[in-house]
Amino acid sequence: MLEMRPGCECCDRDLPADQEGAYICSFECTWCRDCAEGRLRGRCPNCGGTLSPRPTRAQAKWAGAPPSTVRVFKPEKCGAPAF
Question: A Pfam family in this protein (predicted)?
Answer without folding.
Answer: DUF1272
